[in-house]
Amino acid sequence: MLLGGCAQPAKPPHYRIGFAQCSSKGPWRQAMQAGMERELSFHPDVQLRTLNSHDNSALQKQQIHELIESGIDLLIVSPYESAPVTPAVEEAYRRGIPVVLLDRRTASQAYTAFVGADNVEVGQTAARYAARLLRGHGKVLEVLGSPGSSATSGRHEGFSKALRDYPGLEIVSQVTGNWTESSLKPGLVDALKAHPEVSLIYAHNDGMARAAYLICQELGRADKVRIIGVDGLASPGEGIDLVQRGMLKASLLYSPGGEDAIRTALNILHKQPFKRENILGTMVIDSTNVLTMRQQTEKMVSQQQDIERQQGLMGHLEATYASQQHALYAALLSLLGALALGAFAWRSARKNRLINQQLALQNAENVKINHQLSAQNEEISSQRNQLEVMAERARIDTEAKLRFFTNFSHELRTPLTLILGPVEELLGNSAGFSSTQRHDLGLVRRNTQRLLQLVNQLLDFRKIEVGKMAVHATEGNLVSFVREIVDAFEKPARQRGVRLRFLAAEPVLLAWFDGNILDKVFFNLLSNALKFTPEHGQITISLQAADEGRALQVSVTDTGRGISEQDRAHIFEWFYQGDQGAVAKGSGMGLALAQGLVRLHQGRLSFSSQAGSGSTFTVRLPRELPASLRAEEQARPVVLSLDEPEPIEAELTDLAPAPAEAVSETLVLVIEDNAEVNDFLMRKLGASHRVQSAADGYTGFAMATDLIPDLIVCDVMMPGLGGLEVVARLRADWRTSHIPVILLTARGAPEQQVEGVQAGADLYLTKPFNPTFLLESVRTLLANRARQREHLRRELSVDAAGLTTQADQKFLADLTAVVEADLSKSNLSVEDVARSLGVSRMQLYRKVKAVLNTGVTDFIQGVRLTKARELLLDDALTIADIAYELGFSSPSYFTASFRARYQLTPSKFRALHASTAP
């Protein structure tokens, strides 16, 4: 009984796991091994045997066979190459040994579970982050891993595939780095020299990314090229550390998966549920979350150290326990040999039992500590997931704010229309106003246009954010272009006593640039300079070549108060307003917009400033631009003035008001949901036309089909049926297909104007519009329509080639077919034709009048006479036969009608044709 009480408790099964590792080179593989050992520290009953093939597929295949023969319970394989090791893995699987593939797959489905990240997803995530970083435009250089590696092919495939969604991003070169830094430098140096336009490097691991940064630093391009790596390890000199030091813009987390592989293996061995495909997620580590990731990693390291200390203590206690067991056995043997020592043995046994109890308590405490550490690890994982959710939510919130700004800016254009329109009209007829009233009207106009400029800057800001601001560059003289903008500031500068100097190194400096975008840059820089330069100060604008003639540099220097130290770091941030002193507060958008526009030109905007001595802003632009940024034909840039921030306003306000005229019979239909704009349009158009109005698209379309107006003015943004759909329905309906349509909208982007024209609009006006320009546009469209109708009336026949729309052509063809089918009926009436076409008599009359400028009866008569010319060519028919066949009541009426139309009788027409026949 005493010996039986000392028997050892049954131990849990002892498992042996074999690990065929392809390589131990590099911190990522070392992190994988460390992760496996970290997880196994919780399971002392499991033995791990690792064999390293040093990137040799033949050796790895041999090592797998060796592990199989050694009697392992489970095999973990991280293949160097898929195909060569597949037979050995399949043999293990056939023998009933569970196989866990780690990081890379084999060429077979004969495995128990797979643990690893998706390299294609890593590449796609890198591409999306690069697109957001470069705002959808830039040149990219890709640094590849080893050729033939599944990681290399997957990361390249995902990156290239995702870049197809961003046509403004282009991979201009690729360099093979073989996962190491030493073999990268020659090829990367040559590629960067051959492609100076590269703005981002995507490296397949952080080691090559670190080498790329050092090479860029040697070439003086570290501040121009952004670098993205892959791995996101926390050790010194690796991804997280490089991002925190600013050497990398971001690193994509690529988990080594050591812990996950061991957890999956133990679930398999313990007959617990497990997933066959364990795809490890990835995330972007950049400046927004790198500090959190480092803190989480340091916390995990600290916890691991605590675990190791606890395990050391437990090992010490187990050694004590073993030592006491030996003492107990010796005491029992001594008891059997000498009863005299019984009392001593009893005391020793009691003491040992107390020690065993202490050891049991300590073991229980260790188990509790292990559970706590596991819970902490799960908490860390949950926090990381929460960080990813928070980052995505922040992105969605930012996008919602941008949409709000854009929609709000569009909404501002309608009230601006109601302000600028009447003001422009009053200024055009200001002869009876006093000088004070004219001054006040000019003040209203200037400030309304300044508000419009802010609205346009918000819209430009949104276009830049979503990559919709396109550059259409043409070759021109930058000196003359900048001089025109400087000239616009001469008068306000002179009024304030500020000296304005323009210094150009040469009279002609040619470059490729988009004047309609760059004028906003220089306008903002000069406006800021004039704003902050005190009276009797000086502003100097200098222009010269740079970078050995490959670039041009424009500098704007003022003698103002300078920029404070605290403002310098934020000067180009959107909506930032620093200490502006006594001058009026700005919007905080001008400099941020200017920087974004300069970047679109692949240039750079920088500044230098010293408190109390003024500031210098420098724009550096390349003289050559890629073909994708060049316009097909020369565009005429319109230079902005201080009082007229938009080119369209500068053109519209120059138009003189049209002289008053009597109200014509033309009917204009206004479709506008804003009651005030609707009333404003009716008053302006009602001075010279009959006007009807509708407050929504559905009512407007119904009124158009009923009234058949001569012209329609329609808003684009309306609830329910929008303006574009109204135009599409008008063009699809033959009753209204001929009506000219003018669209009014607050959406002024070029692609939106193209959308309106494609829908069938004749003119697309952006709010706020000039009333005089609108009236002139209406008059021109109606005059063009009248000329077309007159032409068709003179050429009245079945030929509809002169009509502008397919619906009009179809209408005339259907109308002609209906009339020709009943030509013999002398009593054919307008009601008969309208009934055959399925419309009312009035709708038919208005349509024919609008298209042909003639009545339905005249049209029927014209078809009969046209048909008569064909029948007169047949000598077998008498004139009387032709008259009755065409529905004329008598041959004499036919002869009179034919003579009135063609100035000769039917018999003379037949004789003339007979005399000219061959």
UniProtKB/TrEMBL annotation:
Residue numbers of 4-aspartylphosphate PTMs: 715
Enzyme Commission number(s) of this protein: 2.7.13.3
Official protein name in the record: histidine kinase
Catalytic activity, as annotated: ATP + protein L-histidine = ADP + protein N-phospho-L-histidine
Alphabetized UniProt keyword annotations: Coiled coil, DNA-binding, Phosphoprotein, Transcription, Transcription regulation
Coiled-coil residue spans: 370-397
Ranges of residues in domain HTH araC/xylS-type: 813-912
All copies of domain Response regulatory, residue ranges: 667-782
Domain Histidine kinase per the UniProt entry, residue ranges: 407-625
